[in-house]
Amino acid sequence: MTIHFRKAELSDIEVLLTFEQELIQHELPMDLSMKRDEKIYYYNLPELIHSPDVEFLVAVTDQKVVGCGYGKIKENTEKQAEGKYGYIGFMFVAKDYRGNRIGEQIINRLNGWFRSKQIRETRLDVYDQNPNAIRAYQRAGFSKLKLEMIRFLED
Description:
Helices cover 29% and strands 24% of the residues. The protein contains four helices and five strands, in the order E-H-H-E-E-E-H-E-H. This is GNAT family N-acetyltransferase.
């Protein structure tokens, strides 16, 4: 199987919306704070595709989009050593194509883009209850930084 990578285009929106909903359905049981009574979206896809501060990549095989991920340059807080950092988001690989390190290849390409923009720090978010994703990100060189916690207050 040969995988090619290219920038996401508006013509990819339909498959990207499908990927987004699959990702949300996968993460919904891990996040009790998410709405359950209406359809939700994580991303403004046209904005991500057109933003000069975003590199949005898709993985393609046999003219079929099978994965995606984006990198976005963000401002760091004043306490951080680096003024800006690279944020990696919407990492998704279609179920039948997982295990081929497509996500890792997307991350490597995004890291190359960040380097070309003089960005030396990259971050991403992952649910603590998603061990497969955590292992994949650790294989790609990421390490755990902090854990966000939540509590719902009773009336």
